[in-house]
Amino acid sequence: MNSEEFMRLALEEAKKGDAPYGAVIVKDNQVVALAYNTVKRDSDPSAHAEINVIRNLTAQLQNPSLEGYTIYTTGEPCPMCATACVWTGISEIVYGASIQDLVSVNQSQINISCEEVFAKSFRKIKVQRGVLREECLKLFK
Fold it and tell me: pLDDT tens-digit profile of 2-13?
């Protein structure tokens, strides 16, 4: 599979949640975990798609390290989610709509890019931007 195919899976996950955010974690070109936003359902402000998928996978692995894994998200990770990626050691983030894109369609955001978070951290995380950006943005309109 390629980046667009993995992002399409994240788009499908996003449609299941109570906000249009979906996340997929991949290792060795295989999907290993999927999740969506459950903030309202769970009454948990930290239940973003990225946090949910990280929690699910690290619990399954019984290991907090996700080195060598890639996360695909419909929206650029917020500072909380970006920081969770730092703590897990995830190797790469691929996202569709940027924080700026989300702000432009009136989504509540903390206007700090994930790359700003990474620049101040101790990890080098590869970032691929704008994969299926328009499709991801449509979820928020």
Answer: 999 999 999 999
